[in-house]
Amino acid sequence: MYKELRKPFQYSRPDFKANGRAAGGKKKAKAKNMQSTLKRLWMYLSEKKGMLFLVVLMVVASSGLGLLGPVLIGRAIDHYIVTKQTQGLFLLLAGLAGTYFLYSLSSFLQSFWMIGIAQDTVQKMRNQMFRHLHSLPISFFDRRQHGELMSRVTNDMENVSSTLNSSVIQIFSSLLTLVGTVSVMLWMSPLLTIITLSIVPLMFAGLKWITNRTGVLFKEQQSNIGELNGYIEETISGQRIVKTFSQEQKVILDFMKKNKRLRESGFWAQTFSGFIPKLMNVLNNLSFTIIAAVGGIFALKGMITIGTIIVFTEYSRQFTRPLNDLANQFNTLLSAVAGAERVFEILDEKAEAKDESHAIEVKEIKGEVEFRDVSFSYEKGGDTVSGISFIAEPGQTVALVGPTGAGKSTLINLLSRFYDPDIGAIYFDGVESRSIKRASLRGQMGFVLQDSFLFEGSIMENIRYGRLDATDEEVVEAAKQANSDSFIHKLPDGYQTLLKQDGSGISQGQKQLLSIARALLADPALLVLDEATSSIDTVTELKIQEALKRLMKGRTSFIIAHRLNTIRHADQILVLHSGRVIEKGTHETLLKNKGFYYELNKGVKTT
Ligand code: ATP
User: Fold this and answer.
1) Other Cβ atoms closer than 10 A to 542
2) Domain for residue 550, yes or no?
């Protein structure tokens, strides 16, 4: 995380695909373990057993009533219309109207209640997921692409939600309708039923032919949408880079190419999927013709009644629809199960290791920090940093310098206990870090990073983030100490000026000043400063240096330095190279040694 915060304008290609997927929508993935995922989903749903029972009741009722309608119509024809008997016809028609009314009511109730169950379920899952995400160790976030995680929290969850909302009911009711329709048809005329069902294989063959093609085409379309969205996101968040390298034309051309590809795949995917209703229509008409022709012959021979023919024509429509629905919904269901599986994978991730049972709370530390022979690697068997030993006395300033990848951020990650050493130990006021509760240790630390974390809210709220119970006066005092008060007063609404999440509206330097104010308010014993590399005007730079001096006074501070002239006064400079401290000392002694630091200062080597 630390690294992420330090890289404000990362032109992050790796996140690109995953982000695209997040924005791209429903990418159909197959569930690896369908059975256990369904079981787990059921565990959530079963908490609402009572409501589910009512939903099932309504589905059965609506399916039954849907079947009853045509039977009543057939009866009206056979018993009253053909025989020209009006007595009782109106009663039957009233019954028919009642049937359709109850059908609509039960359909409405089933979806109303099911939506309630689905929304409660995903609300609970979302809460669990979000809570769990915040209990996971930093190593988890370091391993994952953020776009992909976002996709799980939003896209996959939405997939589960929409499927629970409607598809589950639809599948259940389609199955019931299908079984019911065929049963009634068989009961009325087995022969005509078999003839009517003769179009089913034709329908399956047609559907299979189309879905085989649309499956591939939709996948292609989704991946093209994902790619396009990813590109849009990438170029918007990387606008600064696009502009500084004058890449606008290239970016537009690339976009047009991707957009063209999306157009192609979209055209064919939509065209082929548009064949499905047309095919169903043709088959419906075919079945209608078969029933009318064969049914007509049967009726003439007195084998069946006219009413039965009407019922069959109605039913022939009723069973092609659920078959079509089933084919469609099954795909959606599969992708929702895959989505749920991806959500559960996160829920199954191991939370950050609990504090040791004997771990203590630290209320106030003096600020002595010792690294004793610390080695650590992100990957097993590697050595990102090794044999690190140094002592920072309370109130001292320790500067970390070294080329990129030397391990400076890693030392800070270890200091903050985002990771623990593989070998050796870190001591705070002589107490081993593992014996201190993480939250209380982090509570003693303040961070001023290159990319100050600002959130949507007023300047007052943003500074108060350092200490939530601080009064307005304390916030203003901290801002004054951080040389921020004067620029805040010049803003339209002063301390109440609303900031956007990305902090747009104020300058890079002002953001740094605000984060210094925030750290001053938090009044931590230990400080981590990541010096800004981005160019800041000299006046603001001076203000920052002055505010930092005030902030660092009396606190043990660790500075990741990129410009060497700012660390001349550090009590200790640790020169890191390939994960080892190769030189250690003050600016003067290190210059005298004429080693790596000396070369860095001459500008021969760069950080
Ligand atoms: P820079 O000045 O460029 O930020 P740094 O000195 O802070 O570099 P580190 O970020 O500590 O260097 O990285 C040290 C090494 O560890 C590098 O080789 C880096 O690729 C690797 N590394 C950093 N973070 C991770 C991680 N989360 N997982 C695996 N390897 C990592």
Assistant:
1) 12
2) no
The total number of structural domains that make up the chain: 1
| Cβ contacts of 137 within 8 Å, gap of 6 or more | 351, 352, 353, 418
* 200 residue type, one letter: V
Report yes or no on 434 lying in a domain.
no
Cα 428 to Cα 423: distance, rounded to the nearest angstrom: 17
Q: If you average pLDDT over residues 215-233, what whole number do you get?
A: 77
Confidence of residue 501 (pLDDT cuts 50, 70, 90): low
Q: Give the per-residue pLDDT at 572.
A: 92
Mean pLDDT of the region 517-535: 80
Q: Are 588 and 558 in contact, with CB atoms under 8 Å apart?
A: no
Confidence of residue 24 (pLDDT cuts 50, 70, 90): very low
CATH number of the domain that 321 lies in?
A: 1.20.1560.10
For the CA of 406, the nearest atom of ligand 1? 6
Which residues pair with residue 498 across a beta bridge? 458
Average pLDDT, rounded, for the chain: 82
Tell me which of 373 and 501 has the higher pLDDT. 373
Q: Report the pLDDT value the prediction gives residue 365, as an integer from 0 to 100.
A: 84
Q: Is 7 in the pocket of ligand 1 (CB under 6 A)?
A: no
Residue 334: domain span: 33-347
Q: Which atom from ligand 1 is nearest to the alpha carbon of 562?
A: 2
Nearest to 438 by CA among 430, 452, 428: 428
More confident residue, 9 or 42: 42
Handedness of CA 159, 163, 164, 165 (dihedral sign): positive
Sign of the alpha-carbon dihedral angle for 454, 460, 464, 466: positive
CA of 402 to the centre of ligand 1 (A): 12
**CA separation for the pair 68, 72 (Å, rounded):** 6
- Alpha-carbon distance 242 to 254, whole Å? 13
The model's pLDDT over 397-434, given as tens digits with 9 standing for 90+, comes to: 999 998 888 889 899 999 988 899 999 999 999 899 99
Contacts of 571 (CB under 8 A, 6+ apart): 392, 393, 396, 397, 398, 586
3 lines ligand 1 (CB under 6 A): yes
Ligand 1 close to Cβ of residue 384 (< 6 A): yes
Atom of ligand 1 nearest to the CA of 411: 11
Q: Does 439 map to a domain?
A: no
Is 285 inside any structural domain?
yes
Do residues 399 and 561 touch, judged by C-beta distance below 8 A?
yes
pLDDT tens for each residue of 169-207: 888 888 888 888 888 888 888 888 888 888 888 888 887
Ligand 1: which atom is nearest the Cα of residue 402? 6
